[in-house]
Q: What sequence folds into this?
């Protein structure tokens, strides 16, 4: 079965909109600040999409665009202001930042309680130690999708290909929380196809077009494709060779239209959560 990420996202946004409305009745409007430094066209599109998504569910979104020449200190000062701004529940600084700004310093400066991207080391630690906190949106999207398919992860073999801090590692931790037996693979993993073939649930977060072919897949597996790879001028494909893999699996997400639409939805979810805590 092909999991329709767009439809899932739509459903979830309706629920979020209802909860936002409930909060507003209590006098609290959830607010998200999105900070963009410079004029990277791809980042501009991402920021616009986030703004639209907020509008759709009734979240107040404050878009702050700063020139490329902004210094690290100026950006840190802005973050301090947003940390203290009572109308803001979530702060997101669009990455990548210009080279002269250290993204680690910027993320460290965001209050962990407004870190709706879930990138702050405090939130990474909370995830690691089984506490509540804000967790990164793409990994949360992956978990929502698996849940929507009604998959019980208890005792299942889960294999994650990719170990980045924003996708691979947090996804592995979330799968572990649900009692899956988790293997994390990366560029040095030996016999990758064999390891992947053990997976009842396979999450691909590599960034290599269609590298996961049918011989990596166990019959009846659940395959979640996080990859976004541009091929040629207009085409976008995932990390999974969709056409051949779909014949072998129980569930699979397409690219585009799988994990992508759910990712922004989970940002809205985190912002709502933060506002609920404030309320
Ligand atoms: P990174 O480049 O940070 O990480 C890629 C990971 O894949 C690394 O851990 C790397 O291993 C591993 N890898 C690379 N080549 C191989 C290989 N041949 N075999 C096994 N492992 C390999 O990418 P991200 O985690 O940021 O993103 C992964 C993909 O997901 C990208 O396509 C990105 O565009 C997409 N993405 C999609 C999102 C969405 O909303 N749908 C959001 C975020 C990302 P090593 O650590 O050893 O180098």
A:
């Amino acid at each position: 079965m092909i999991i329709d990420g767009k439809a899932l996202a739509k459903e979830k946004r309706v629920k979020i909109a209802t909860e936002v409305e409930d909060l507003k009745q209590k006098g609290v409007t959830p607010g998200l600040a999105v900070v963009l430094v410079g004029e990277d066209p791809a980042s501009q599109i991402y920021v616009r999409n986030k703004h639209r998504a907020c509008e759709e569910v009734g979240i107040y979104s404050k878009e702050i665009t700063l020139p490329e020449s902004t210094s690290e200190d100026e950006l840190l000062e802005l973050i301090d202001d947003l940390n203290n701004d009572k109308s803001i529940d979530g702060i997101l600084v669009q990455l990548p930042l210009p080279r002269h700004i250290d993204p680690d310093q910027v993320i460290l400066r965001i209050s962990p309680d407004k870190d709706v991207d879930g990138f702050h080391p405090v939130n990474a630690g909370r995830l690691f130690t089984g506490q509540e906190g804000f967790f990164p949106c793409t990994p949360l999207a992956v978990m929502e999708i698996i849940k929507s398919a009604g998959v019980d992860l208890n005792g299942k073999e889960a294999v994650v290909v990719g170990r980045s801090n924003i996708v691979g590692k947090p996804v592995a931790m979330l799968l572990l929380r649900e009692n899956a037996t988790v293997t994390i693979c990366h560029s040095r993993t030996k016999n990758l196809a064999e390891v992947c073939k053990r997976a009842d649930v396979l999450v691909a977060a590599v960034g290599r077009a269609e590298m996961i072919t049918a011989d990596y897949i166990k019959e009846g597996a659940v395959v979640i494709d996080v990859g976004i790879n541009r091929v040629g001028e207009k085409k976008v494909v995932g990390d999974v060779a969709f056409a051949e893999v779909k014949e072998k699996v129980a569930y699979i997400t397409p690219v585009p239209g799988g994990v992508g639409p759910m990712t922004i939805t989970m940002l809205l979810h985190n912002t709502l959560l933060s506002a609920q805590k404030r309320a």
About this structure: The domain at 27-111 is CATH 3.40.50.10860 (Rossmann fold). The chain has two domains: 27-111, 137-260. The longest strand covers residues 31-37.
